[in-house]
Amino acid sequence: MYFDLIVESLEFDFIRRALLVGILISLCCAFLGIFLVLRKLSMIGDGLAHVSFATVALALFLSASPLIVTIPLVVLASFAILALSEKAGLHGDAAIGLVSSFSIALGVLIASLARGFNVDLMSYLFGSILVISRAEVIISVVLSFLVLAVVIYYFNSLFVVTYDEDFARVLGLNTRVMNYLVAILTAVTISLGIRVVGTMLISSLIVFPTVTALQVSKGFKSSILIAVTVAVVSVILGVFSSYIFNLPTGATIVLFNGAFFLISFLVRRLRLV
Amino acid sequence: MKNQKIFMLVLFSILLVLLFTGCDQAAEEPVTEEGEKLLIITTLFPQYDFVKQIAGDKVIVTFLLPPGMEPHSFEPSPRDIADIQKADLFIYTGAYMEPWAERIIDAAEGKTLLIVDTSIGIDLMDEDDHHHHHHDEDEHHDEDEHHEHGGKDPHFWLDPLLAKIMVDHIVEGLIQVDPDHEGYYRENGETYKQQLQDLHDKIDSSLAGLENRTILYAGHFAFGYFAARYDLDHISPYEGFAPDAEPTPGNIAELIKRVNESNAKVIYYEELIEPKVAKVVAEQTGAEMVLLHGAHNVTTDELNSGITYIQIMEDNLAKLLEGLQ
Amino acid sequence: MTPLMTIEDLAVRYGKHQVLSGISFVINKGDYIGVAGPNGSGKTTLIKAMLGLLPVAEGQISFNNNAAHDPYIGYLPQKAIQSDGLFPATVREVVAMGLLAPKKGPRFYNASDQEKVGKVLKRLDIDDLSDHKIGSLSGGQQQRVLLARALAGSPSLLILDEPTSALDPQIRESFYELLGDLNRVDGVTILLVSHDMASIGKYTKKLLYLDRRVIFFGTYEEFCSSEEMSSYFGPLSQHQICWRHS
After folding, report:
1. Tens digit of pLDDT for each residue in C74-122?
2. DSSP reduced 3-state for C84
């Protein structure tokens, strides 16, 4: 009976779009997530999401496309975070906190200039993957593929930089460039991802698959495989479940991510017992 | 060490200055000199229009919502509240549309501001009363956390007969602050109420013959009282009236199905909000997107063109006839 | 005696602080040099300069090979023990990192890379640990893995910075024996930095003693028979070093 509903849902354009964009973006999040979590930069997803709150507010205020305004500004913010960590002697978490809370305040200011939060801004808080327009689908697909291509191209280099930055430098890798590269990719992914689950939940798409994988992984490659699988399956299950049981899609996807984490955590505990 | 001391001194002085300027705020009394016009502030567009129809240019009237802004998330700024306190008359819709009005009422204690609640005497419908969602499974309507209206539908101005009650309240309010012109206000009030009655009769007879009586609406359905008055049904993917982030996929699919099943040519959407859901439905079904204006607020262009409540309603009627026939 | 790397008049500054000055010595192929000196003498700074991790204020570091590019230097960093047990890398994956240096563009691994990894794991006697997670290994085992990583790319020179400071004495011995083996049998040129004078004296063939400048560079025979060194160290200390080396 559920199967029939799933088949039925696939007839709808908006469901197919949600699946396509959701899967691609969750792939990006999973790939980047492993590098961010292992560098102890897990909160950067949250931080940059808060920045996107301000940029979306600004875009709506100027009647511009939120995606076009958000991407470059969030990239700049990620650079700011990196620069703060390098130059102002701040640790990653402090730098993120600075940029993040400043952005929220800015967003609130801008929203009040526009006389209050409106529906469109709220939709970016919680995600609105079901009403994504054709243009946004194309942009999301193109950018996702770009992000994935770059991550795969630099995969081994990123691995070394994540594991042992000093050694990476000895190998002749430009660690500074690598760091900024990860920053850009994360910024783009977050800008795309807030459409799927919103600013409140985007960091979970980045953190959960990786943390789930780390519970049971046997090596780096296996970690990535598990993370990616969890991410994609969560999106698929999330979209279909939200259709069948009439639930908000973004939150359902995140809940499935949480469920998978619980499962892998239990597997790890039971195995070691 | 010396630099530190200077810094502390400067900081402290700034603090002192701020403190003292803060204490300087005396409450402003609204001053209506002889011969100066009354200052009236309303919250939404309908009341603003009503006041203009009744009082003409005997008063200065404005409404709080900036043009083009969606009303359900509006919060008055400190400036707004100050302006209200300087006015002679403040007219709002009711506790469920403007939950923040209570603060204004409290703050106006002892001031010469008269506040008019246009919902008094109107039997408010529960939000769930007129909600019809046809789902395959059994669904019950939970209390949405997004409810800002505590479960009551505040959009009664869209029923012309209830609008007449609002006009009565406004007339009484005007008379109280400006008793000299009582006759003028009463006469205009009656004239306008007759116009509203005519509007009602027109709508009633036009819609009476319709077979298809279901409005397919891709937004928050504000026409509950309208639908109840004229015996119409509706399908909408949203529960409640607060600005929801996103409707569930089931609801969107439901809407699409109904459009297809009934071969509807038209999918209606609400004013001032990006009609994203309507677009999705329209793309999937080929139905045309048509605006059904809830009259909460208007755009700058509409305002400049001098649009009235009655014009909006007549326009809505035309669109309904077009789409449902 | 084929020279591999020549350091001439090297000076390194940390801001205004002169950490190293006038450092000159030559590393020949097959050398096994122990680098010693008191704390703050600039041993790690010298290593980092040789590896290109620090800018050189004066002097020159040159490689005497015929290849078009600088030779690959294998490096075992100080404090390299991966205490983060959560890091998901297998031994094989860690060792493979050492092969990334000469690669350009997308540094993907190929089949011959996997073979090289297998070979070095076997040579260091840890191939049974290939698929274990690095965090689950003991300190000594992890050091071997990192040594394998340093050796994987067949380096011309192997530099180790305090490789045994965190190891038990027993493990230490077997580690040094392994290093000696690599030097004698496989002909790996080794530069070993350590404050463990006893082990340096016992295992290495030449001594580079630093204290912001070169105090001594040469074989142990030269060291032990030098009157200058006797007066610098005092006969007792000198004897300690020499006695271990026999």
Report:
1. 888 876 555 566 678 899 999 998 888 877 777 888 888 888 899 899 8
2. coil
Q: What is the least distance, in Å, from the CA of A33 to any CA of chain C?
A: 14
Q: How far apart are CA B287 and CA B298, in angstroms?
A: 25
**C67: CB partners within 8 A, 6+ apart:** none
Tell me the pLDDT tens digit for each residue of C39-60.
Answer: 888 888 899 898 888 888 888 8
Euclidean distance between CA atoms B168 and B25, whole angstroms = 37
Superfamily of domain B38-121+152-191 in the CATH hierarchy: Nitrogenase molybdenum iron protein domain (3.40.50.1980)
Contact A148, A232 (CB under 8 A): no
**Which residues on chain A are in Cβ contact (under 8 Å) with C53?**
166, 169-170
Please list the residues that pair with C217 across neighbouring strands: C208
- Please check whether residue A109 touches B, CB under 8 A: no
Residue B32: its pLDDT value, please? 47
Q: Residue C118 carries which side chain, given as an amino acid letter? A: G
Q: Among A8, A198, A247, select the one facing B248 at the smallest CB separation.
A: A247
Domains and CATH numbers, chain C: 1-71+156-246 (3.40.50.300), 81-155 (no CATH)
CA of A162: how far to CAs of A59, A85, A167, A176, C134, in Å? 35, 16, 10, 12, 15
The CA distance from C6 to C2, in Å, is 11
Which stretches of chain C score pLDDT less than 70?
65-71, 79-86, 244-246
For the stretch B107-123, pLDDT in tens is: 777 677 888 888 888 88
Nearest CA in chain A to C106: A153
Cβ contact C–B (≥3 pairs, < 8 Å): no
Best mutation target, B74, B133, B276, to test chain A (most A CBs within 10 A) = B276
What pLDDT does residue B62 have?
A: 92
Predicted ipTM of the assembly: 0.80
| Size of the A and B interface in Cβ pairs below 8 Å | 97
Residue C45's beta-bridge partner residues?
none
Residue B197 is inside which H or E element, if any?
A: helix B182-208
Residues paired with C35 in a beta bridge: C193, C208
A120 and chain B: CB distance < 8 Å anywhere?
yes
Mean pLDDT of B249-255: 87
Rounded Cα–Cα distance for residues B106 and B186 (Å): 29
pLDDT at B28 over 70: no
Query: Is residue A168 classed as helix, strand or coil in its secondary structure?
Result: helix
Q: Which CATH architecture has domain B210-324?
A: 3-Layer(aba) Sandwich (3.40)
How do strand C189-193 and strand C17-28 relate by DSSP bridges? unpaired
In B, minimum Cα distance to A10 occurs at: B253
Kindly report the average pLDDT of chain A as a whole number.
88
SS3 C28: strand
